[in-house]
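Students often ask why we bother encoding 3D structure as a string. The short answer is that it lets us treat folding as translation between two languages. Here is a chain of 128 residues written in the first language.
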Amino acid sequence: MAEPARRVLVLEDSVLVSMAIEAALAERGFETVLAGSLSAAKARLGGSPLLAALLDFQLPDGSSLELARELEDMGCPIAIVSGADGDAVPAEFPFTKRFVKPVSAEDLAEWVASIDPSALPVAAPPPT
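And here it is in the second language, the structure alphabet:
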């Protein structure tokens, strides 16, 4: 039986925030893939599957919604983390968990820890 996915994409343009999330996830045994932009995220997504993705909503190079849809289509649970109004994420993205900034790194890590990898349809391979 294959090992369950333990990798989590953290797409966040604030270095300090991403470091805090990375530390909280590491304390719970997760491996992180850190990216500060959409282009960096796409470049770093390779290798083993993702368990989940924590996506900052608005990044220097655009909105993370397209990436969210790509990952969700592959069965990867998505959380959108945003300082924007709660209505900023369109209604056609009901599959996302939404967190409003400021949110603690521990709350985000707890959400990831609550995901049952065996309940996922398939391990989500990264988009290419």
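Translate back mentally: The mean pLDDT is 86. Keep this in mind for the problem set.
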